[in-house]
């Protein structure tokens, strides 16, 4: 179903009460967020399943190398795709609805192809950006040694990353094609592809890690193949099931995608988008490294808590995806109801508040059983139960950060989100958490580190909410979005 078919009543100026509009927008965002969140969880499961299969070998060094390898890939490589493709939330979402609201049928079809041009631009430019990171992967051993990692581990991680680098084009292509669908209102196709890839991922990992005897290196081989198959299957989906909807925005390959003005415009949004996503992820990885300085129970508890946080993070992440595409779509309309823009922007944190309260409440009630599920050590279970209330406390803030961050991306204000993260995490939270963990009379350890993260998410959520609610000139944002959506 196309955007116009699904939401035609929302395209014009509405004579509807604010409460009714807010309810409609909250329902729409929830419907869009559910498949997006599910897809994010499924995508995260790809390396997790692979690590689990590597662990069956009983080789602790190989297991550590796989965990380190995927962590490095996430914060230095995959972030390029996930963060950089947010430029499409700004550019392609607006271009799509600008074309859809063109009264001239022939001009509408021509303008719609601009979404496909933006897809090509994203794939090529993000691959070029990743090439710089690939050099770090290829020669990662010396970097890891400089960071104090054991030589045997550093050597294995380098071998691991040298294989995984081959899967990067597949990952980047999948992310960009997924955005191509999402900005047109199709949140389901990429999730269905990832559901189909679940058994394929398991079979490939078992075959390459165990059956064919590649061991550790079979893991990045299998995962790379899964990324290429995911991209290929999504292309097939768009070309067949989506041939009358999302496929219409593809006009074929063109050198126009490398227009210099368009390249600069894309990078101006993509690089802050990468920083916006990457600064948060790296901060949480730093907390994991600092937790290793506490004790064995803290390390084990940190693993459990991070696993739960990654699962819960799928909710605000999916809501952010839904918010960014929705706002981008609304801003791209030639004639726009500014009241609807404001209400849609407020609907995102409203949904996030409800989701955060529900998730936090559930987490409080099951905090001890969660520890027991992952560990039989009483000290670890107690620590998990003590720290999880902090994770429960920041669910609303995390929701605000995810949803309002999505609104900012839809407007093309990724730089504000990046700045909020830089200040909140690296100026306030990490120093505060380190001090609470190691340099106070109480020496709170893991609890102190996570207290810092609660403060960070509170600052980010509040800062982005203020920017969206009181720091936005919607008339100006609408004008800018239409200027950006003009074919370049």
TrEMBL record:
Gene Ontology CC entries for this record: membrane
Pfam family, one: MatE
Topology term for the membrane: Multi-pass membrane protein
One of the record's GO molecular function terms: xenobiotic transmembrane transporter activity
GO process annotations (BP): xenobiotic detoxification by transmembrane export across the plasma membrane
Subcellular location: Membrane
Chain ranges passing through the membrane: 70-97, 118-140, 152-174, 186-208, 214-238, 269-291, 343-366, 420-438, 450-470
InterPro entries: MATE_euk, MATE_fam
Keywords for this protein: Membrane, Transmembrane, Transmembrane helix
Family membership: Belongs to the multi antimicrobial extrusion (MATE) (TC 2.A.66.1) family.
Protein's name according to its UniProt entry: MATE efflux family protein
Organism: Malassezia nana
């Amino acid at each position: 179903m196309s955007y116009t078919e699904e939401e035609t009543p929302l395209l014009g100026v509405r004579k509807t009460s604010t409460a009714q509009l807010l309810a409609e927008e909250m329902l729409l965002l929830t419907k869009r967020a559910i498949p997006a969140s599910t897809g994010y969880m499924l995508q995260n499961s790809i390396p997790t399943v692979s690590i689990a299969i590597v662990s069956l070998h009983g080789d602790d060094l190989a297991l550590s190398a796989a965990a380190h390898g995927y962590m490095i890939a996430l914060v230095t490589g995959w972030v390029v795709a996930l963060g950089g493709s947010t430029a499409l939330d700004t550019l392609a979402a607006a271009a799509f609805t600008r074309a859809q609201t063109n009264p001239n049928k022939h001009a509408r079809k021509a303008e719609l192809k601009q979404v496909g041009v933006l897809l090509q631009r994203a794939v090529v430019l993000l691959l070029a950006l990743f090439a710089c990171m690939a050099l770090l992967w290829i020669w990662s051993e010396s970097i890891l040694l400089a960071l104090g990692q054991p030589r045997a581990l550093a050597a294995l991680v380098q071998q691991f990353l040298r294989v995984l680098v081959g899967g990067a084009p597949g990952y980047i292509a999948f992310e960009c094609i997924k955005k191509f669908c999402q900005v047109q209102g199709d949140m389901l196709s990429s999730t269905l592809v990832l559901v189909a890839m679940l058994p394929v991922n398991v079979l490939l990992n078992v075959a390459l890690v165990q059956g064919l005897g590649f061991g550790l290196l079979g893991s990045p081989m299998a995962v790379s193949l899964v990324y290429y198959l995911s991209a290929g299957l999504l292309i097939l989906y768009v070309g067949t099931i989506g041939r009358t909807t999302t496929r219409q925005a593809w006009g074929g390959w063109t050198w126009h995608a490398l227009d210099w003005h368009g390249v600069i415009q894309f990078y101006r949004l993509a690089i802050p988008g990468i920083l916006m996503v990457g600064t948060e992820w790296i901060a949480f990885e730093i907390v994991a490294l600092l937790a290793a300085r506490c004790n064995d129970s803290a390390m084990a508890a940190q693993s459990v808590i991070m696993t739960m946080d990654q699962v819960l993070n799928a909710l605000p992440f999916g809501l952010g995806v839904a918010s960014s595409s929705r706002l981008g779509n609304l801003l791209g309309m030639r004639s726009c109801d500014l009241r609807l823009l404001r209400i849609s922007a407020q609907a995102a944190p409203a949904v996030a508040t409800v989701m955060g309260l529900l998730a936090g409440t559930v987490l409080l009630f099951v905090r001890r059983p969660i520890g027991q599920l992952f560990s039989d050590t009483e000290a670890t279970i107690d620590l998990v139960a003590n720290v999880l209330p902090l994770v429960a406390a920041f669910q609303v803030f995390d929701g605000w950060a995810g949803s309002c961050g999505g609104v900012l991306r839809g407007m093309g204000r990724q730089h504000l989100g990046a700045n909020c993260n830089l200040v909140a995490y690296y100026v306030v939270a990490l120093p505060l958490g380190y001090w609470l963990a190691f340099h106070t009379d109480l020496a709170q350890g893991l609890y102190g580190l996570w207290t810092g993260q609660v403060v960070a998410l509170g600052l980010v959520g509040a800062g982005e909410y203020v920017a969206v609610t009181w720091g936005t000139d919607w008339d100006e944002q609408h004008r800018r979005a239409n200027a950006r959506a003009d074919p370049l």
